């Protein structure tokens, strides 16, 4: 499996392309507000998007979804519990960052994610893990065949997602961590929404917030 990533936009959000190999269709995981950067990431691997999976509805993960989906027909997935975010990108941008840097459009015609759902696209299969806490509709995506978890803003190397924004809940995040993430094998690679990759085992042993899910 080919997995490539780029840190994009002012929040240095990791966007990922996932495919069986170079050339052909891919799945994009998260779309920060940098359509040019996403296009460059696909171009360097000779890929085109067949599906876009959004871990959650925060602007730094979905702000580029609308222009990306306009560039080529594709399925765009997000959990419906985050509709209050995806339908109000300008309001969200202004509330969180204090300014609006581009013409954000609401996301419409989205396909719903649900816990346990298997997304088959571009020749790969990813299982949806609904992990509320950072946002109500936050989801992680798991490739069981490759032992890889795309964790969005659920789990980082040495940290966890913030829960002080609208819809966030530390208690829900801790419960999601216990039931959906920390029950995975130690050697599962964790590819987060920000920062470097890690493993489940490393975070189980050394994450400063590990008492939350102990």
Which secondary structure elements does this structure contain, and how are they paired or packed?
Layout lengths: L1 E7 L4 E7 L4 E6 L5 H9 L3 E7 L5 H4 L2 H7 L3 E4 L4 H4 L2 H9 L13 E2 L5 E4 L2 E7 L8 E5 L4 E5 L2 E2 L2 E2 L9 H12 L7 E4 L5 E2 H7 L8
Description:
- The structure is a single chain.
- 24% of the residues lie in helices and 30% in strands.
- It contains 7 helices and 14 strands.
- Strands 1-2-3-4-5-6 form a 6-stranded mixed beta sheet, with helices on one face. A 6-stranded mixed beta sheet has the order 7-8-9-10-13-14. It has a two-stranded antiparallel ribbon with strand order 11-12.
- It is globular.
- It starts with a strand and ends in an 8-residue tail after the last helix.
Keywords:
globular, 30% strand, single chain, alpha/beta, 214 residues
- Amino- and carboxy-terminal Cα gap: 33 Å
Q: Shape, please? A: globular
Helix content: 10-25%
Provide the succession of SSEs: EEEHEHHEHHEEEEEEEHEEH
Radius of gyration: 16 Å
Sheet/helix structural class: alpha/beta
| Record field, number of beta strands | 14
Strand content range = 25-35%
Strand order of the largest sheet: 1-2-3-4-5-6
Which sheet architecture does the biggest sheet show? 6 strands, mixed
Task: Estimate the mean pLDDT confidence.
Answer: 97
Spans of 5+ residues with little confidence (pLDDT < 50)? none
- Number of helical stretches of at least 4 residues: 7
């Amino acid at each position: 499996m080919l997995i490539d990533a780029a840190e994009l936009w002012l929040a240095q959000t990791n966007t990922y392309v996932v495919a069986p190999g170079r050339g052909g269709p891919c799945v994009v995981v998260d779309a920060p507000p940098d359509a040019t950067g996403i296009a460059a990431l696909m171009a360097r691997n000779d890929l085109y998007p067949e599906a876009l999976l959004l871990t959650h509805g925060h602007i730094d993960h979905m702000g580029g979804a609308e222009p990306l989906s306009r560039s080529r027909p594709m399925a765009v997935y997000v959990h419906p519990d985050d509709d209050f975010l995806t339908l109000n990108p300008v309001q969200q941008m202004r509330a969180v960052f204090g300014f609006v840097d581009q013409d954000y459009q609401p996301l419409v015609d989205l396909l719903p994610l649900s816990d346990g759902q298997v997304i088959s696209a571009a020749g790969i299969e990813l299982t949806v893990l609904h992990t509320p806490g950072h946002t109500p509709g936050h989801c992680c995506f798991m490739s069981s065949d490759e032992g890889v978890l795309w964790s969005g803003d659920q789990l980082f190397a040495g940290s966890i997602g913030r829960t002080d924004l609208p819809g966030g809940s530390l208690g829900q995040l801790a419960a999601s961590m216990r039931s959906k993430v920390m029950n995975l094998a130690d050697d599962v690679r964790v590819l987060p929404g920000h920062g470097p990759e890690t493993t489940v085992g490393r975070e189980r042993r050394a994450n400063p917030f590990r008492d939350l899910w102990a």
